[in-house]
Structure formats: structure tokens, C-alpha cells
Design goal:
The chain is α/β, with parallel strands linked by helices and about 300 residues long. It has ten helices and 15 strands. The strands form three sheets. Strands 1, 4, 5, 6, 9, 10 and 11 form a seven-stranded parallel sheet that branches. It has a four-stranded mixed sheet with strand order 3-2-7-8. It has a four-stranded antiparallel sheet with strand order 12-13-14-15, sandwiched between helices.
């Protein structure tokens, strides 16, 4: 079973209006609500690829109930830890200028954190855990490290999609896959990375630091995959970018869905690139049909 972990999920409330007049009444043209969070996005895309997963994390209040009910409606299993305070609402304002208003999230007590750790400790070597996104401010900065240590001790494969110190901390525990973008990779090593040739040496350094496989997305310049056995460079499909939200999560999901089916690293990488692009070219997350339509455009060279 694939498990996804979203420590600080949200209800994403999207409001659309042509122009915002501060200090006045604004009538909205369109509104929509979604269960948000990087791990939740991975679960949603996996489901669309025909792969079942179980969503973990913390939820509370009426907003937490909304997230659970929406995932249930999409036939995605959940095993959240229930907390007392409401899950946060993030407001995405789409107007002449796009604006985001993100809340900090509920308080997570030490007892609730332990409850989550107990769930992680029940996973076996047949399972895989995807840890994605930020850590709530009320949890310790060592949260990811504590969780992947449990995985490492129980021989549970895990994937991490995070940046900065969160990513550095998990490397000694040998993540199966990490997926920084070129900006995040550059920040890790105090440099600027603009193309595949510049990214590959730093991808190799991440292998030396403990990662098993590294995908680095380079926006319009493509992507690379570096493993112990090979280095692959990929092109990206052409299309109109409508939203980058969820594209990275879709890359992770696309890779895992195809790898579970084929155990083929190169084909999984191709599917990952097509999945990320399909989401970027959509409003909302990709569908399997859109991904497979883009696959012929994804060219990979060793």
C-alpha cells in the first residue's frame, strides 16, 4: 500500500472576481472548494491512475470533515489523526492580480504527534510512504527526520517532496526518491542551476548524501533523473501553462503509479514528466487521459 502524509492540509477556497476594490463590497463571480495539501494531491492523482493509496495527516473540525468527505467521494482511503482545532482554510483570490491568503493551521499536541508516529510504525516493508509539504509550526522541526527514522528502522520505503533543511535531514535515512526543483536544488548548495548539465553534478551529490533516486524538475528546460545506475535527461511537452499548483505532486504520483506497475525507472520517469505537465496545462490536477496524450512528446536521453 502507498500511504501519503499531509501534516498541514487545508480547504482551498478559490474565489474569482474581475477586480478587487479594497474597502468596498465585492461580488464574487465564481467560488470553489477543494481538499488541499501536497500529499492529498498525490493520493488524488494516484487514484486517477488506478492506484489505491491511503491519506494520513491531521484534520479537525468542520473543515477536516469536509476534507475527509471529499476524499471519500473520490474513493480515497483515509486514516487521519483527529485534532481539536479546525483544519485551516487557504483563500486563493483570482483577480487582475492573483493573491493567496494561507492560514497557519491547528495546534498539534505531543500526544497527537505520537498517535501519528504509531500509525507510521505500523507500516511494513510492503508499504511506501510519501511525505510531502511543510511542517506545522506547532510540531518540532525534526518531525520529518523522526518519521523517516521510523520508516528506516522498519524497512519501509519512503519518498520526500520537501525543501531546504527538511530535505537535508532525511537524506541519511536513504529515501527511495526525492524531487527538488532546480531552484530548491540551487538553494541547497548555494548556487544557481538553469539546465540539466548544471543539475546533474548536484543530483549526484544528493546520492552521496543518501538519496537512492533524484528527480530534478527544470521548468521549461525539462528534468533529470539521477540514480546509482544511470543519469537521464528529459524534455517536457509543449503547452499553455494554466497553473503550476499540484504539478510537482503529480510528478511524484505519476512516477510511483508507473513504477508500481513496471519497476522500470526510465518509463516511470517519462510518466512523471507527462503527469507534471498535464497538471500544469490544466485547471486542477491531471487525468490519466491527459497524461497519456502527452507521453509521445516526452523524449529521454541517457
Amino acid at each position: 500500500m502507498i500511504y501519503t502524509l499531509t501534516l498541514n492540509p487545508s480547504v482551498d477556497y478559490i474565489i474569482e472576481v474581475p477586480e478587487v476594490y479594497l474597502g468596498e463590497l465585492n461580488r464574487l463571480e465564481k467560488t470553489s472548494k477543494f481538499a488541499g495539501g501536497k500529499g492529498i494531491n498525490v493520493s488524488k492523482v494516484l487514484k486517477r491512475m488506478g492506484v489505491q493509496s491511503k491519506a494520513l495527516g491531521f484534520v479537525g473540525g468542520f473543515t477536516g470533515s469536509f476534507i475527509e468527505s471529499q476524499l471519500l467521494a473520490e474513493k480515497i482511503d483515509t486514516d487521519f489523526v483527529q485534532v481539536e482545532e479546525d483544519t485551516r482554510i487557504n483563500v486563493k483570490l483570482k483577480a487582475d492580480i492573483e493573491t493567496e491568503l494561507n492560514a497557519s493551521g491547528p495546534n498539534i499536541s505531543a500526544a497527537k504527534f505520537q498517535e501519528l508516529k504509531d500509525k507510521i510504525a505500523s507500516l511494513t516493508s510492503d508499504d511506501l510512504l510519501v511525505l510531502a509539504g511543510s511542517v506545522p509550526s506547532t510540531l518540532p522541526k525534526t518531525t520529518y527526520e523522526e518519521l523517516v527514522k521510523i520508516c528506516h528502522e522498519n524497512n519501509v520505503s519512503f519518498v520526500v517532496d520537501a525543501e531546504g533543511d527538511l530535505l537535508k535531514a532525511v537524506l541519511p535515512y536513504h529515501p527511495f526518491l526525492i524531487k527538488p526543483n532546480h531552484h530548491e536544488l540551487g538553494e541547497l548548495f548555494g548556487t544557481t542551476i538553469t539546465n540539466a548539465q548544471e543539475a546533474i553534478p548536484y543530483g549526484k551529490k544528493l546520492l552521496e548524501m543518501g538519496a537512492q533516486n533524484v528527480i530534478v524538475s527544470l521548468a521549461g528546460e525539462g528534468a533529470i533523473l539521477v540514480s546509482q545506475h544511470e543519469e537521464l535527461i528529459s524534455t517536457v511537452p509543449k503547452g499553455e501553462v494554466k497553473s503550476s499548483v499540484g504539478a510537482g505532486d503529480s510528478m511524484v504520483a505519476g512516477f510511483l503509479a508507473k513504477y508500481e506497475e513496471t519497476q522500470d525507472m526510465k518509463e516511470s520517469f517519462r510518466y512523471s514528466i507527462a503527469s507534471g505537465s498535464a497538471t500544469a496545462f490544466s485547471i486542477g490536477l491531471c487525468t490519466k487521459e491527459k497524461v497519456e496524450n502527452l507521453l509521445p512528446q516526452v523524449q529521454i536521453q541517457a
